[in-house]
Design goal:
The complex is a heterodimer of chains A (273) and B (121). Chain A has 273 residues and is α/β, with parallel strands linked by helices. Chain A has a single domain, classed as P-loop containing nucleotide triphosphate hydrolases (Rossmann fold, 3-Layer(aba) Sandwich). The radius of gyration of chain A is 18 Å and the shape is globular. In chain B, the strands form two sheets. In chain B, strands 1-4 form a two-stranded antiparallel ribbon. A two-stranded antiparallel ribbon of chain B has the order 2-3. Chain B folds into two domains: 31 residues; 85 residues, no CATH class. Classes of the chains: A alpha/beta (273), B alpha+beta (121).
Chain lengths: 273, 121
């Protein structure tokens, strides 16, 4: 059954580079597709494409987003179908161009076309606040700001949030790479701290997870891995995006201590979990 | 009897150790870097948003000093200007040590002499 008649354009952005935008885009896209949606993920990091390798689709690129915008191919030709997950597609970035080859108008036209074919269009935004960012957010209906609990990432996130507000987009926050032990020790910004500093709605919390490295090594999305805390977190985020707004946000906890382990097994969660 | 005493002593020592550890933990929490990060961020973000330049802050500092020292004798070194986050506004906080108020007579005399000076001109 199809509830959504017109696709939603979601941009994943952060300002700072290296906080996990590409992994988050791949994971959320894959998780949304696993929830029976038609999903296309689009790499807007033109000149520095990576979403294709993260998804394991680097060998099958023929056309790119630049071709799709310029009318060299149609949108169906530009989208590469994922073999593992049904109804998941990738429109890769071009590696030989730079970010100036696209204009916001072209992006808006392309996204309007994609809206007719997909339920979700998930855009991987490049780092920075220049033209690449402007193009990536031009057609966005929603924005997810990805941030790690570090001062540099939070400060950049604040800047990005300001720029998104200026475009009348109210973003939501995903906090990535949380190390629960450090938060409990007081040596890492807690999610409450970050939410307070940024005054933004929280969408999900993702723990630091070695499985993510393994998943990018192999090109298999983290959401397909078993026992991957980050993969599970992204699945919950996708469910929340997909309309399950009452799904509680799970706070990553350190697994140490017999009582904590037991409590988790039985299903007792502490306050805020 | 002696054995018992030793036993009790050991127990006491263990208790002390426990409390010491607890204290240590609490101190570590206080000096933990997460809180420092939060405070630094809050300030950085406010300054980013207001786009306050250093030169502007310096001239503000100077102007406030001259205005206050008209009425009070102050420790000029102690004047501190901060922009602090409150719930939905940022507030400008000026702190200074006041040594004493300037005597009214002195002020009047000064004003009077100023008036005379301006009349002469």
């Amino acid at each position: 059954m199809r509830w959504i008649l017109e696709g939603k354009v979601i941009v994943i952005t952060s300002g700072k580079g290296g906080v996990g935008k590409t992994t988050a885009t791949a994971s959320i896209g894959a998780a949304l597709a696993l929830e029976d949606n038609r999903v296309v993920v689009m790499d807007m990091d033109i000149g520095l494409r990576n979403l294709d390798v993260v998804m394991g689709l680097e060998n099958r690129i023929v056309f790119t987003v630049v071709d799709a915008v310029n009318g060299v191919c149609d949108t169906k030709q530009a989208a590469i179908k994922d073999r593992r997950i049904k109804d998941l597609y990738l429109i890769p970035a071009s590696q030989s161009d730079n970010k100036d080859v696209l204009e916001a108008d072209g992006m808006i036209k392309l996204c309007d076309e994609l809206r007719k074919q997909y339920d979700y269009i998930v855009i991987d935004c490049p780092a920075g606040i220049e033209k690449g960012f402007q193009n990536a957010v031009a057609a966005a209906d929603e924005a997810l700001v990805l941030c790690t609990p570090e001062v540099s990432a939070v400060r950049d996130a604040d800047r990005i949030i300001g720029l998104l507000y200026a475009r009348s987009i109210t973003p939501k926050l995903i906090l990535n790479r949380i190390v629960p032990q450090m938060v409990e020790r007081g040596d890492m910004l807690s999610h409450d701290d970050v939410v307070e500093v940024l005054s933004i709605e929280l969408l999900g919390l993702v723990p630091l997870d070695e499985n993510v490295v393994v998943s990018t090594n192999t090109g298999i999305p983290a959401v397909l891995q078993k026992n991957s805390p980050a993969g599970e977190a992204f699945q919950r985020i996708a469910k929340r995006i997909n309309g399950d707004v009452d799904l509680p946000i799970e706070v990553p906890r350190s697994g140490r201590g017999l009582w904590k382990k037991l409590a988790r097994k039985i299903g007792i969660r502490r306050k805020g979990a | 009897m002696h054995e018992k005493l030793e036993y009790a002593e050991r127990g006491l020592k263990m208790k002390f150790k426990f409390f010491e550890k607890l204290k240590e933990k609490r101190q570590r929490k206080k000096s933990a870097s997460g809180g420092i990060a939060k405070k630094r961020l809050q300030f950085a973000i406010i300054y980013d948003k207001l786009e306050v330049s250093d030169t502007m802050l310096q001239s503000l500092h100077h102007d406030i000093l001259t205005v206050i020292s008209k009425y009070f004798e102050i420790d000029r070194e102690s004047l501190k200007i901060d922009i602090k986050p409150t719930e939905d506004l940022s507030s400008l906080v000026v702190n200074t040590h006041i040594l004493r108020a300037k005597p009214a007579s002195a002020k009047k005399k000064k004003i009077a002499s100023q008036k005379i000076a301006s009349k002469k001109q």
